[in-house]
Specification:
Layout: H1 5-8, H2 10-13, E1 47-48, E2 55-58, E3 62-68, E4 84-91, E5 96-103, E6 128-136, E7 139-150, E8 153-158, E9 164-168, E10 187-190, E11 212-217, E12 224-228, E13 237-242, E14 256-262, E15 278-280, E16 282-285, E17 311-317, E18 320-325, E19 341-346, E20 351-357, E21 367-372, E22 378-382, E23 389-393, E24 399-405, E25 412-417, E26 424-428, E27 433-438
Antiparallel strand pairs: 1-2, 2-24, 3-27, 4-5, 5-6, 6-7, 8-9, 9-10, 11-12, 12-13, 13-14, 14-16, 15-20, 17-18, 18-19, 19-20, 21-22, 22-23, 23-24, 25-26, 26-27
Length: 444
Amino acid sequence: MSVNRRQVMAGAGTAGLGFVLAGAVDAVFAGTANAASPKAFRGYGELVADPNGVIDLPKGFRYTVFSRAGKDTLNGGGAVPASHDGMRAFPAGPGRSLLVRNHELSPGTKDPIVPQRPGLVYDPAAPGGTTTLAVEGDKLLSHVPSLAGTYRNCAGGGTPWGTWLSCEETEATPATEAVLTKKHGYVFEVDPFGRLHDAAPVPLTALGRFAHEAVAVDPHTGILYLTEDAAKPYGLVYRFLPRNPRGGPGTLRAGGKLQALQVPSTRDLSIVRDLGTKLNVTWVDVPDPDATTVSVRAQLDNAKVTRVPKAEGIFWSDGVVYIVSSYAKTSEGAAANHVGQVWRFEPRRSTLELVLRLEPGGRFDSPDNIGISPFGGIVLCEDGDGENYLVAPSEDGTPYPLARNAASDSEWAGATFSADGRWLYANVQGEGITVAITGPWWRG
């Protein structure tokens, strides 16, 4: 194992990960059925080097690689597509899960694309989409394409009614890329249980056409919260008020109202440094969600919205929304520098609270996807410089590594737990692998 800057800084860098997630992490893994009683999470010790050079894990943990891009074959033929990204596990019976997995592929790629089978294709010129994997623990039962002909399917989010919202991180159109046959930058709903009356891809245009990153849904109100990973100007955080708030497969096609986040007198969230800072939030209507002539984020004056550099993962848990800003650089136009923020939005109070800020020089940087265990604990997927980890913080603000990509500097993505909390599924994008991790979660 090589020693790099981040390992050298590890001893001094922990103070840089300043979580104040009171009660959010104590039961991350200590609250499983195997635990006599919940206890404060204190990590699992140092990671043990993997003799196979794939994934380093704490002692007592193990992993299984069960899906490899370009090497394994999908049911019905065709190679497993590359560039695994966002993913969600849906319970599918005792011990079983259905994983819906994004593939962040762009036109011109040399990597295996999502097979374009009849009834699944939006734009035949686009190589991205999703695959659905049936698993039992770490055993793969089947895997099939479930959405094709889309562009840069980055992250997304699960719905309370058991579907996956797959997000295109682009604004490309046939006018900007002649190879395309349709406009892109939409959200698509994928139902792993086959309940959509019309399973053919339908862009949810009312949710906006922009560089979508991720989505979270309030199960009580049906309101959606969305992040945008874009620059010049920086992207926004949005909410979508659905016309049919009761939800259900296909109901988002009925439309609704798209609004952008505004924090009075704060034009760029990167400027906030003090943990625990709470900001009041209002929302501004988006004039043209389909961005007919002007990008959605450029339609709104800087005085009327609040911008978020590198807005990435978003996740609903226990009445609040967690929002990730991966990093901010003044050299790229941000108001301040940081290498990671996590915000907590409370819809009932309309307040946004800073619960994490990473400063340069620490062991961990650039959180991207965010997942939360069935017991309430946060897991962050790193997409940073040098080594990349799955990271979980304790309540007192100490970060602990859950896993390290030992094969390369490629990012982690799509961390998601089985419903019983026994298995953590995740992707390593560059290697194009999906893994299942298990072990004594209660030991921490």
